[in-house]
Description:
By secondary structure, the protein is α+β, with helices and mostly antiparallel strands. It is 18% helix and 48% strand.
Amino acid sequence: MRMAARLCLASAAFGALFGSAAAEELATSGVPLFARNLPAQPQEPSIWSGLYVGNEVFAISGKGVKGGFGGAGFIGYDHAFANDVVVGVRADAGYSPSLARWGASRGFDFASANVSVGYEIGRFRPFVAAGVALAKPDVFGRGFTTTSDAVNDLFDQASSVRAYGTVGAGLDYAVTDKLTVSVAVSAGAGRGLAAP
């Protein structure tokens, strides 16, 4: 009797606190409220999805290297899937200095396009990439001025432009939702001078 009175009192208190509908639902359902499937919260968009544009800077150092700085402008689009795989496309153009000499050339103008596959790990994104590049020795060694100058110099004398296949890997880090930094390495294979 004492146990029944406590249970009845607990049910009355629950009903008074949470309303009769909640008490009735608890009484008719065998699953507690916290264990029920609640509506899914909308997923936040990935920081790795969308259109992006930017600049990159690179440098080399070695014996006899002067003006070992280069740069490029790029544009790309990435799409993050629900399973955290990120697939993207990217195009860039610029100037790259070189350690190897090809006559009077100190580097080369280039344009490239690649496809990348990565995996989102919070603010980190490791990736691999493959693509194609066009490159031409730069005998003036001016370095990187603008992306449009690099494209114009690349196709100025089209007979010396070479095509290459490229592969690479890297790691991106999102400092903020709008600023990322990246470390990457790439290599190319083709005929003639080394690829960017």
